[in-house]
Amino acid sequence: MRDENYKKRLQEYFKKNLAKGYSADTLKWALIKQGNSRSAVEIASDDAQKEVAAEAAKVVEPKIEYLHVEDIQQLEQQQPKKSWWKRMFGK
């Protein structure tokens, strides 16, 4: 039986290469062809995919606020308009 470090290395391999865009099946077969145990590869793949999914779930989507046309018009009215000269030359 292999040590825990072996399983961690396989998991890290999966996480790193899944992030690069490789499919899990491709990675599994590559590891199996390199002489790794099929069961160890399956376990490492499942664990790595669970970790990646858990990390992805932590992402918070930004809050989007919408302004009505009337709100925009009110904001524009509150700000004094700059003359053409000031808009062009910033004076």
Brief description of this entry?
This protein is mostly helical and 91 residues long. It has helices at residues 4-20, 24-33, 38-57, 69-78, 84-89. The N and C termini lie far apart (76 Å).
Sheet having the most strands: none
Tell me, briefly, the overall form.
Answer: rod-shaped
**Structural class designation:** mainly alpha
- The total strand number stands at 0
**Topology as H/E string?**
HHHHH
- Share of helical residues: 55-70%
**Gyration radius from CA atoms, angstroms:** 27 Å
Low-confidence stretches: none
Compute the number of helices: 5
Strand content: under 5%
How confident is the prediction overall: mean pLDDT? 84
Oligomer state of the chains in this structure: single chain
Q: In angstroms, what separates the terminal alpha carbons?
A: 76 Å
Describe the structure.
It is a single chain. This protein is mainly alpha-helical. The chain has a domain at 4-57. The chain has five helices and no strands. It is rod-shaped, with a radius of gyration of 27 Å. The N and C termini lie far apart (76 Å).
